[in-house]
Each structure stands twice: as C-alpha cells, then as structure tokens.
Amino acid sequence: MNKILAGIAMCATLLLANQVVVQVVAEEFATKSDAVEMTKKAVAHVKKVGVDKAAEDFTNRKGEFVQLDLYVVMYSLQGVVLAHGQNKESVGKDLIDQKDPDGVEFIRERVNLAKTKSSFWQEYKFTDPVTKKVLPKEMYCETVSAVVTCAGVYKR
After folding, report:
1. Is the pLDDT of residue 58 over 90?
2. DSSP count for the chain of H helices, then E strands
C-alpha cells in the first residue's frame, strides 16, 4: 500500500512540476490579448501626447511599450516608419515595398487596411527578436491620428 501511495505522490509531483515549467515558458512570449492591450495602450498614448512624442516613446526599447517579444510599431499611411520598438534604425524610412520571406508586401497591405478599417489583424512572416528566427506573425493594428499603430505576436 505504501508503494502505491508513494507512486501516486511521485506522479502528482511530476505533473505539478511539468505544469509549472509549461506556465513559465508560456509567460516568456506575448499572447494575442497582450497585443490588443498593448495596441490600445499605445493608441491612448498617441491621443494623449501626440504622434511625435508617442513615436519617441514607442522606439525606446527600455520603455513601457516593449515587453517580452511584444513591441509597438507605428507607420504613416504612406508606409514610412514613425516608431519601431525593436529597430530604431528603420525610423524615418519608407518601407512601403518591404516584403516578407513569402513575397508579401506586408507594409503596403497594412497601410491599405488602415485606410479602410479602424482596427484589424494582419498576418505575415517576420524575424522574432527573441529567437532570431523568421516566424509567422499576427499583428493587431488601430488607425488613429492618420497613423497606424500596431503590436503583434509570433505564432509558435
């Protein structure tokens, strides 16, 4: 009887330990709800401080708009990068023709969606800043003050 109870206790301990490991790994990456929340927070910031100050804040990699693998990007409706939480060097560049590895002109697509919708999801492939691998990405975007503001998650 004691061997059975010890076996049950060991199984329970292993299951609990496995659950904790899975939860810790899951918390290393942002979720779709995190992307929506971050985008809404960013849009509120644009409305509060204006596009220029918000762009500066979004591009600060140590600021409140970069968390885990989640960061904010902001583009003009002409495809110019106004803010990028992972790539400061891209700010000011016209990336309307940029393509993902599958040849999708995702910035052009984003700008066109922003011209017709106040909020939307977009899918394309992009380099994950954590793993440095090209992964499918889902980006949630909102249009405000003639700019499109987005945050997205990588599909794992």
Report:
1. yes
2. 4, 6
Q: What is the CA radius of gyration of the chain?
A: 20
Nearest to 152 by CA among 144, 135, 143: 135
74: its two tokens: 């902001």
Distance CA 99, CA 124 (A): 9
Share of the chain above pLDDT 90, in %: 77
Q: Which residue has the tokens 């993902």?
A: 100
Residue 4 is given by DSSP the state: H
Going through the chain in order, the beta strands assigned E by DSSP cover 66-67, 70-76, 81-84, 119-127, 134-144, 147-154
Do the Cβ atoms of 137 and 126 come closer than 8 Å?
Answer: yes
